[in-house]
Specification:
Layout lengths: L3 E3 L3 H9 L4 H8 L12 H4 L6 E6 L5 E9 L4 E9 L8 H13 L7 E6 L4 H9 L3 E2 L9 E6 L10
Parallel strand pairs: 4-5
Antiparallel strand pairs: 1-2, 2-3, 3-4, 5-7, 6-7
Length: about 160
């Protein structure tokens, strides 16, 4: 598969919306701020991040196989969020590849000192993925229903290679 990271088009949001079948999947993916149900045409507006960026992992021929965002925070961290892989492509390492590429882009932000994210502890596949990439829980920022994880820029060996 010839993968690339690119800005999503309106058509890409149709794919992403189809990957969210119910309210629980929406909560795990987007947190409590994105209502379910939603229409694909609403997603760009629902997912807007002031100063942030949205990306699709393109599987070739213009078809997205993943989606994620990052948002530079005022404290020097760049926050990853709303990471998802197409259900038909899960288990093939595309989540890892999407995260690697997002981390690399995030660390290019001026003044970036770390990459952060939130993950629900009842999403063990995501927790394991993030830990394997070097993220560690920041207990002072975690809540009972959400783990706050941080990856210091100095701990990133080379996120561009497997």
């Amino acid at each position: 598969m010839n993968l690339s990271l690119r800005v999503p088009t309106a058509a890409d949001y149709l794919y992403v919306a189809s990957w969210i079948p119910d309210v629980d999947a929406c909560r795990v993916w987007a947190g409590p701020r994105v209502p379910f149900p939603f229409s694909a045409t609403m997603l760009p507006e629902l997912l807007v991040l002031d100063g942030g960026a949205s990306y699709c992992l393109d599987g070739g021929a213009g078809t997205p196989v993943g989606f994620g965002q990052y948002w530079p925070r005022p404290d020097g961290a760049v926050h990853l969020l709303r990471i998802i892989v197409s259900p038909g492509h899960r288990g093939a390492g595309l989540g890892r590849e999407l995260c690697r590429r997002l981390i690399a882009m995030a660390l290019e932000a001026p003044g970036a000192t770390s990459v952060t994210l939130n993950v629900y502890p009842d999403n063990p596949a995501a927790v394991c993925l993030y830990q394997s990439l070097g993220f560690r829980e920041d207990e002072s920022r975690s809540r009972g229903d959400s783990l706050f994880m941080r990856l210091a820029a100095s701990r990133v060996q080379d996120v561009r290679t497997p």
